[in-house]
Design brief:
Number of domains: 3
Largest sheet: 7 strands, mixed
CATH superfamily of the largest domain: Periplasmic binding protein-like II
Oligomer: single chain
Strand content: 15-25%
CATH class of the largest domain: Alpha Beta
Distance between the termini: 77 Å
Structural class: alpha/beta
Shape: elongated
Order of helices and strands: HHHEEHEHEHEEEHEHEEEH
Helix content: 40-55%
CATH architecture of the largest domain: 3-Layer(aba) Sandwich
Number of strands: 11
Length: 317
């Protein structure tokens, strides 16, 4: 008997919950067409401006707001000086509407880009150094073929750019070197770039044709900060040569590092600069040291048509 009572109570609860959810669903469906208006009124505190923002005549907006209040069963606005403000109930609805509208806008953008991939939006992350020539060249070439695609650009260290890629804040990332051992990312190598030893023109090695990393054990180094790809490579090369670099200065820009080298404050391993900056001599390393420049993306993540088109464009070059 006890078991039957419990089952009956569960059945009654399920029936009640199902009926309640159905009523909520009907009410939400009735409210949905006018929630954008309610959200706009909440933001602007003025019915006329809210109607204008939505392209709706003010009398029509007033009637819709009245109908919305009747459907909910309580007033949704109250006078506030020369304007109006939302009641507590309508504030709850407006807050939910703002969240729903944001999700809907994202979906609309994705649908629009499916229909018109030539008018999409791509968020590209890249290293500071690559912003000098590579990124402008790629964007210029791509825009020749897709003139209406918009770009959002994020510059930072390799670690920062890859973190944004993992989080989905950027669609694609130009980094050096490409990440290895991360199964969540995929990539394509675009080029191999020589790393050179930068020394002041007055340095004892300035007239050499090439230099071994082992010869730098007693030198002061000017470095990029941790998180930059060149810093990682430099640390690895020095470790392989059997020493830990003595660091005098750290920076975030390769041009700053070269300027410190020119001032005689240390040596640095950096990508070749063309033309060579004043006061600096760039020397090849022996054996040769390089870094790979590549495009990375989240493996298995579905890109928008615009981002896919840009990825294909970059890889094809």
């Amino acid at each position: 008997m006890i078991r039957l009572i419990r089952i009956s109570a569960i059945i009654d609860t399920v029936t009640y919950d199902s009926s309640e959810r159905s009523a909520d669903h009907r009410l939400a469906a009735d409210l949905a067409p006018n929630l954008a208006l309610l959200a706009a009124v909440g933001r602007m505190g003025n019915l006329t401006r809210a109607a204008e923002s939505l392209g709706v005549p003010q009398p029509t907006a007033s009637r819709r707001l009245t109908a919305l209040a009747e459907r909910v069963g309580v007033p949704l606005t109250m006078p506030d000086g020369r304007g109006i403000r939302l009641t507590r109930v309508s504030t709850l609805l407006a807050t939910a509407a703002e969240r729903a509208l944001a999700e809907l806008e994202t979906g609309v953008r994705q649908v629009r880009e499916e229909i018109e991939p030539g008018r999409g939006h791509v968020v590209l992350g890249f290293l500071h150094l690559l912003g000098r020539s590579l990124v402008p060249e790629l964007l210029s070439g791509f825009r020749d073929e897709h003139p209406h695609v918009r770009f959002g650009l994020f510059q930072g260290s390799r670690a920062d750019v890859l973190a944004r890629l993992h989080d989905g804040a950027v669609d694609l990332a130009l980094v050096a070197p490409l990440p290895t051992g991360d199964e969540s990312l995929a990539g394509h190598i675009l080029a191999e770039q020589d790393l050179m030893l930068s020394v002041p023109t007055s340095h004892r090695l300035a007239n050499r044709r090439q230099v071994r990393v082992t010869e730098l054990a007693d030198e002061d180094f000017v470095m990029l900060e941790r998180g930059y790809g060149v810093r990682q490579i430099t640390d690895e090369l020095c470790a392989t040569a059997g020493f830990r670099p003595r660091i005098t200065f750290e920076g975030q820009e390769s041009d700053t590092v070269r300027g410190l080298v020119a001032a005689g404050l240390g040596v640095a391993l950096l990508p070749r600069s063309e033309p060579s900056p004043p006061g600096v001599v760039e020397l090849p390393l022996h054996p040769q040291a390089t870094r790979s420049i590549g495009l990375a993306w989240r493996d298995g993540q579905r890109l928008t048509p615009a981002a896919t088109a840009f990825r294909e464009f970059v890889v094809s070059r």
